[in-house]
Design a protein that fits this description.
The protein is an alpha+beta fold. 18% of the residues lie in helices and 40% in strands. The mean pLDDT is 92.
């Protein structure tokens, strides 16, 4: 199935993840929970690529909801190309999106997910306004 990403979503990051044997379930395909781990890895690696490592004494992003739609089964062996998009910046939030496709089957989306991401001050555990540099990235 080919999924079109609406224009309002801005591509910000892409990476390749190996499908690990241990991520499979008894049915011989990638366990549903592993998809969420892939989506999490992409978000965190994107932040690392920006020099914004998670810091419990500072500020950063957390997700307040997450979803994943499953279109085709991912199976071992292989590599997944994860492409991340962002959109809809608010005062403290933005949306993150990700498509997962096999490297050996480009253009075919096997799963797509996303999350509402909120910027927080970790010590106070409160939402704060998106920093200007983040707003610029997600706009």
């Amino acid at each position: 199935m080919k999924i079109e990403i609406p224009e309002k979503k801005k591509q910000v990051f892409e990476m390749v993840l190996p499908i690990r044997w241990g991520d499979m379930d008894a049915m011989g395909h990638l366990n549903n929970g592993s998809y969420f781990r892939y989506l999490e890895t992409v978000r965190i690696d994107w932040m690392y690529s920006l020099g914004a490592k998670p810091d419990p004494t500072g500020q950063g992003m957390v997700i307040v909801n997450a979803f994943c739609n499953f279109y085709k089964q991912l199976e071992y062996p292989g590599n997944v190309r994860a492409t991340m998009y962002v959109s809809d910046p608010g005062r403290t939030t933005f949306e993150s999106w990700c498509t997962l496709s096999r490297e050996d089957n480009p253009g075919v989306v096997y799963a797509a997910g996303g999350a509402t991401t909120i910027w927080v001050d970790f010590p106070s555990q409160k939402a704060i306004a998106l920093p200007d540099w983040v707003r610029k990235l997600v706009s």
